[in-house]
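Tokens in:
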């Protein structure tokens, strides 16, 4: 299937590893030029070089902290200066720390809000004018299955990814007539560094090994396994493609059936 991404320019945030990198690699394979960022300059440059070598696409990599509005503005403007436009935006950020409500400070709530919610808002704010002018655009927010079914001990993530969903669903209606779609993609338990870190942390508290904890968690997934980043990235590429032009305002899980809700 030709997704119509050849020649498009995609900005993918937090793309040095994990799901962000998987999405960037998939879009590059489909022929899109890339603007990538992460907080670590060495890591994001290494990722960009590897993607360019593997696919031949033009990649701009920048060290950026998406929780800072000035950094976001610089990122988008740098992409426009390099490529002339941003056609596709994939918002993403490292997950906020785990914890229960009573153990989370006001400062942690504020930092998590800037990281998870404000980053998505500011990225959209800066790419939308050009998308509206051209009459075409794709915004895809990487959220979480926690939006549909909260995950224990992830108070910050559960709350703020739900806020991103509300923002995106409302924005989708506001920009639909400009040929712009806004969707959310909800990763389930996927074999990433963040999931492995959470597994080690929780397993230590429960006095078991991380492998035992993961095996126990897999029993709650109908497919009985963790997802792979490339499986997630395949759907992400479709949702930002020309072929998905009539899909907007949706939140789509990639979770192996973990969410039990009907809708």
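Residues out:
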């Amino acid at each position: 299937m030709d997704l119509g991404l050849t020649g498009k320019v995609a900005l993918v945030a937090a793309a040095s590893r994990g799901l962000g990198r998987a999405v960037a690699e998939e879009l590059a394979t489909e022929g899109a030029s890339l603007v990538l960022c992460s907080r670590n300059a060495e890591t994001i440059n290494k990722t960009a070089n590897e993607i360019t070598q593997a696919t031949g696409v033009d990649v701009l990599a920048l060290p950026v902290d998406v929780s800072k509005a000035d950094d976001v503005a610089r990122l988008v403007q740098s992409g426009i200066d390099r490529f002339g436009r941003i056609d596709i935006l994939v918002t993403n950020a490292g997950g906020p720390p785990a914890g229960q409500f009573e153990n989370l400070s006001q400062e942690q709530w504020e930092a998590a809000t800037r990281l998870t919610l404000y980053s998505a808002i500011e990225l959209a704010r800066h790419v939308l004018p050009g998308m509206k002018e051209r009459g075409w655009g794709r915004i895809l927010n990487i959220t979480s299955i926690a939006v549909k079914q909260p995950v224990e001990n992830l108070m910050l993530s559960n709350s703020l990814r739900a806020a991103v969903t509300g923002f995106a669903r409302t924005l989708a209606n506001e920009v639909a007539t400009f040929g712009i779609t806004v969707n959310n993609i909800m990763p389930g338990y996927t074999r990433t560094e963040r999931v492995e870190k959470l597994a080690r942390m929780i397993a230590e508290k429960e006095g078991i090994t991380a492998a035992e904890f993961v095996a126990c968690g897999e029993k709650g997934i109908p497919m009985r396994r963790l997802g792979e980043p490339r499986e997630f990235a395949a759907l992400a590429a479709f949702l930002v493609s020309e072929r998905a032009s009539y899909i907007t305002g949706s939140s789509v899980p990639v979770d192996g059936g973990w969410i039990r809700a009907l809708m």
